[in-house]
Design goal:
The protein is α+β, with helices and mostly antiparallel strands and 172 residues long. Helices cover 38% and strands 22% of the residues. It has two domains: 2-40; 50-170. It contains five helices and six strands. Strands 1, 2, 3, 4, 5 and 6 form a six-stranded antiparallel beta sheet that branches. α1 runs antiparallel to α2. The longest helix has 20 residues, at 2-21.
Length: 172
């Protein structure tokens, strides 16, 4: 339907040119050429962009519970092993965790914080499901729960997702 409309517009333009120069046959020929060119023209769609911003924290108990938590490097867990869409590689992350000597003294908990320090994670794909799966896998491996929220923006809406349920809601 759109192509026919573009072709019709081309014919109208050509006929108006023909009326202007006083020769409708030339105008019709020009109109057919313009209409054919317009009907073939396709506007390139810009890829959708989804912007992710994080303010999440998880506490891992002093004894570093979890199957793979002994000597864990949390940044490596997210950036090298499990984040196949590079969601977290594109932003500066703030991993807050105490020194091992503090853990031995039982003074602090091991705190993992994912917070966008200098910007957002921007992707062309909608990665909500992959992101939730990644965060859930971390919860399972380290027997913890996330606290806080993260945000997803697209061209139409802004969403917020509160931990630990991770239900997507429209952000007012």
């Amino acid at each position: 339907m759109r192509r026919e409309f573009k072709f019709f517009i081309g014919i109208i333009l050509g006929l108006s040119i023909g009326a202007g120069i006083g020769n409708m046959l030339i105008g019709l020929s020009i109109g057919i050429a313009i209409g054919a060119a317009l009907s073939q023209y396709k506007k390139e769609k810009k890829p959708s962009q989804y912007i992710y911003n994080f303010d999440l924290f998880a506490n891992i108990p002093k004894r570093l519970r979890g199957e793979n938590s002994e000597g864990v490097d949390v940044e490596e867990w997210f950036n090298n092993k499990n984040d196949k869409y590079d969601i977290f590689k594109s932003i500066d992350l703030d991993f807050d965790y105490c020194d091992e000597k503090d853990l031995l003294k039982n003074e602090e908990e091991f705190i993992v914080g994912i917070r966008a320090e200098d910007g957002d994670s921007i992707h062309e794909k909608y990665l909500y499901d992959e992101l939730i799966n990644l965060l859930r896998r971390f919860e399972e491996e380290y027997e913890t729960k996330w606290e806080g929220q993260f945000y997803v923006e697209d061209k139409k809406e802004n969403y917020i997702c509160y931990a630990p349920e991770f239900k997507l809601e429209i952000n007012d």
